[in-house]
Amino acid sequence: MVTGVMNIEEGASLPAKNTFQVFMCSIIAAVGGLMFGYDIGISGGVTSMDTFLIKFFHHVYEKKHRVHENNYCKFDDQLLQLFISSLYLAGIFASLAASYLSRRFGRKPIIMSASAFFLCGAILNFFAQELGMLIGGRILLGCGIGFGNQTVPLFISEIAPARIRGGLNLMFQFLITIGILAASYVNFLTSTVKDGWRYSLGGAAVPALILLIGSFFIHETPASLIERGKDEEGKRVLRKIRGLEDIELEFNEIKRATEISNKVKSPFKELFTKSENRPPLVCGTLLQFFQQFTGINVVMFYAPVLFQTMGSGNNASLISTVVTNGVNAVATIIAVVMVDRLGRKFFLVEGATQMTATQISIGALLLKHLHLIGPITSRSVPLIVLILICIYVSGFAWSWGPLGWLVPSEIYPLEVRNAGYFCAVAMNMVCTFVIGQFFLSALCRFRSALFFFFAVMNVIMGLFVIFFLPETKGVPIEDMAEQRWKKHWHWRKYFKQN
């Protein structure tokens, strides 16, 4: 045991083969990202459809088509924004529940529950006849998102070998981008169909069914089994997913971590009061805060609205959104392939730099060319903005998009892992709610200056990564404190000196 610990501290990965079981379980669980992405992509397109606005938000429909309406204020409506943001408000409470339930019952049942909630929400939205049914469906979808986002990245991080943990975990983000792309294409196809918004919203049932069926075939994570006293079953699963008979070294590491974990009766109290937990708590939570204030959901939620604001027709705006989301999906593949080679910090800093430049450029173009009344007269400006948005989205897609989920899932010790990751997910949901609920109002009031605000945020978060985030590439998840936090110039002061 002593030798094993010594090897880990020197940076050696625990022995493991790249097994089919690990890949299968990771891909199936990552379908939770497909659900999340589909919802992100579908809602913005639906809110730009005239048939949807006529049925639920007729006053917004009338304002949208007024010739002399302020370009930046056409979609400014609190109830319309509530349609977007109510999901994330529900997701906050659902992720809190999931943080407790996944520790008590395991990761697998929570993933199954996520798909069931999401399926029910999709069905309710498909049959919605009034705004109350619509919002009710969104709340159910939010419960599914909260359960899935809380559990899936942790599940993958716990089941994956350290040397490929990054790439496997980024499958979650990759499927988010696939979901967004699929949703934008569905919106384009249904935009000319009578009540096409029903098919767009009801289509969320497809990824929910895939995850629900697939979740019957995944294994519970060894860490969760051992934490709940099921040592023999934990060993059996560990042998299967590692492809080895001799798994004693990893089993002992997990056992040591679970013994510490089981002594903790109140994970949240432990998280907030124990100084050693301060570094991952601050970094994990701030990464999710920064992820949302990159400005990405301005594009993901409201891209069709943004393109229509610049004077593009409905079909042109939806086509532009399909192009943008296609870039998003392709760029994420780069992160999946390269993150375990180049590391987390490289992509985070590069992405922040790229997004800063494009946000400034977009803001400058809108400031110069998009006046309060009337469309942009230059035919080239919308095309230039589309290109800039694609560059911006690619920068997010290989950096803050996937790594905002990956890094928090791999930095917490087991005893506070659910509680710590909840704080990260809750921060994501709160910020997404704020963006979803108030962006259109902020766009109305601050206009192009809003993009300069996001540019400043990108500068701040790039500096934060450079100075405060340690590299987590290739480090066994149960040994992050020894190898990284205790050796960091700032965070080491929070650990007791032996």
From TrEMBL:
Keyword field: Membrane, Sugar transport, Symport, Transmembrane, Transmembrane helix, Transport
Transmembrane segment boundaries: 20-38, 79-98, 110-128, 134-156, 168-187, 199-218, 281-305, 317-339, 381-399, 419-443, 450-469
Entry annotated with the keyword Transmembrane: yes
Subcellular location, principal: membrane
Stored PROSITE patterns: MFS, SUGAR_TRANSPORT_1
Stated family: Belongs to the major facilitator superfamily. Sugar transporter (TC 2.A.1.1) family.
Name the UniProt record assigns to this protein: Major facilitator superfamily (MFS) profile domain-containing protein
Organism per entry: Brassica rapa subsp. trilocularis
